[in-house]
């Protein structure tokens, strides 16, 4: 198959009539230099520059975490934790406030209405400008994943129990319908043209949803190629799906017919992933070994693991800032309980009733990650 022109530009020709050999030689050098420059500055960025951790911030808090969401248009990051949602500036990564009383697993935002939603039971609707809760929305099932889908103009709440998907109008928070997906949904991706793909963790498959009829039109089986898809990336232009699985591999398949193209290894403990169309790279975050896997799409039929970046133990979910290309991951660093003051310590000069200040666990300890106690919320920013 000929390489798609988004990966390789065609050579340019030039006709200026009759030229002397000297001028022709000079002109050829100029054209060659210009062509090299053009190839380096146009089209999707294909670079060998490795990803690194650009920044890491810590915010003390209490409670467990699940998903992180980057609102690239509104320039905010949302992390539900412990009955509230922490909000950070997407350019500086500094805290800008919290949404009190709004917790849950994840957040989705509709930039037109400036309304945010938290996947909790009941679902919480809040104002993204004032960071105040608007109302609670009673729903069935057990809300987990969440997505704002622009074609249907609905917030999708995903549940491992029926109903698998609940659809909410972001303008006023009304429930407009539910959908049986045929399995337990984890992550979803929209092609922006009327089709939604949802990975079904318990069925080792991907459900294909027609957004006009709101029906499942196909189910792509991964078979023995991948077990427990928990993250999903979509190259909408070339119709390529990346299913990141608990079996520590990524199953790459054709989004049009579900045919499996290839599989590639990823890290251990995946719970999130995505695709960056500007770099033609898919990515997945793994919490058990603290890695971020980068998969390069060099053509619609050619893929390779570009990098396995060491991040932080417990950083199992991630989000993409479409503006900067940065990938943001989250983890919790548990605070150690202070030891009691012993009689020997008192005899040595310590005052009765006083305790040492708590300290955080060293980075990379197995206890990091989902944790219901006090600790630092780590924001890990990855980029080039």
How does this structure look, described?
This protein is mainly β and 384 residues long. The strands form seven sheets. Strands 1-28-27-26 form a four-stranded antiparallel β-sheet, with no helix packed on it. Strands 2-3-4-5 form a four-stranded antiparallel β-sheet, with no helix packed on it. A four-stranded antiparallel β-sheet has the order 6-7-8-9, with no helix packed on it. The two termini are 31 Å apart. The N terminus is likely disordered.
Q: Helical element count?
A: 2
Mean pLDDT: 87
Strands ordered across the widest β-sheet: 1-28-27-26
Number of strands: 28
What's the helical proportion of residues? under 10%
Sheet having the most strands: 4 strands, antiparallel
Rg of Cα set: 24 Å
Poorly predicted sequence stretches spanning 5 or more consecutive residues: 1-5, 8-43, 362-370
Helices and strands, in order, run as HEEEEEEEEEEEEEEEEEEEEEEEEEEEHE
Strand fraction? over 45%
Give the class from helix and strand content and strand pairing.
mainly beta
Spatial gap, N to C terminus: 31 Å
Q: Identify the overall geometry.
A: globular
Oligomer: single chain
């Amino acid at each position: 198959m000929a390489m798609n022109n988004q990966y390789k530009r065609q050579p340019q020709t030039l006709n200026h009539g009759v030229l002397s050999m000297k001028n022709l030689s000079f002109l050829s050098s100029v054209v060659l230099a210009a062509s090299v420059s053009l190839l380096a500055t146009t089209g999707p960025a294909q670079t060998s520059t490795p990803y690194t951790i650009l920044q890491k911030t810590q915010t003390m808090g209490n409670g467990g975490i699940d998903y992180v969401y980057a609102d690239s248009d509104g320039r905010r990051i949302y992390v539900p934790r412990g009955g509230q949602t922490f909000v950070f500036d997407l350019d500086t990564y500094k805290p800008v406030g919290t949404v009190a009383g709004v917790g849950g697993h994840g957040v989705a935002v509709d930039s037109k209405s400036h309304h945010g939603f938290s996947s909790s039971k009941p679902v919480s609707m809040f104002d993204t400008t004032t960071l105040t809760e608007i109302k609670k929305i009673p729903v069935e099932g057990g809300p987990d994943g969440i997505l704002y889908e622009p074609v249907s103009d609905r917030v999708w709440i995903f549940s491992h129990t029926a109903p698998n998907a609940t659809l909410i109008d972001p303008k006023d928070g009304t429930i407009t319908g539910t959908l049986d997906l045929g399995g337990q949904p984890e992550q979803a991706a929209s092609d922006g043209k009327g089709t939604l793909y949802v990975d079904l963790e318990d069925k080792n498959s991907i459900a294909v949803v027609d957004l006009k009829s709101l029906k499942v039109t196909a189910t792509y089986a991964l078979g023995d190629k991948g077990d427990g898809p928990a993250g999903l990336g979509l190259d909408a232009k070339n119709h390529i799906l990346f299913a990141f699985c608990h079996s520590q591999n990524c199953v790459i398949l054709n989004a049009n017919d579900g045919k499996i193209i290839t599989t590639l290894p990823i890290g251990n403990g995946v719970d999130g992933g995505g695709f960056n169309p500007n770099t033609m790279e898919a990515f997945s975050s793994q919490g058990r070994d603290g890695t971020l896997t980068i998969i390069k799409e060099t053509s619609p039929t050619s893929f390779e693991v570009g990098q396995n970046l060491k991040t932080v133990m417990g950083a199992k979910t991630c989000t993409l800032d479409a503006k900067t290309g940065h990938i943001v991951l989250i983890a919790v660093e548990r605070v150690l309980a202070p030891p009691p003051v012993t009689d020997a310590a008192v005899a040595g000069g310590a005052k009765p009733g006083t305790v040492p200040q708590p300290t955080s666990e060293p980075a990379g300890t197995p206890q990091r990650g989902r944790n219901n106690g006090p600790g630092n919320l780590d924001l890990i920013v990855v980029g080039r």
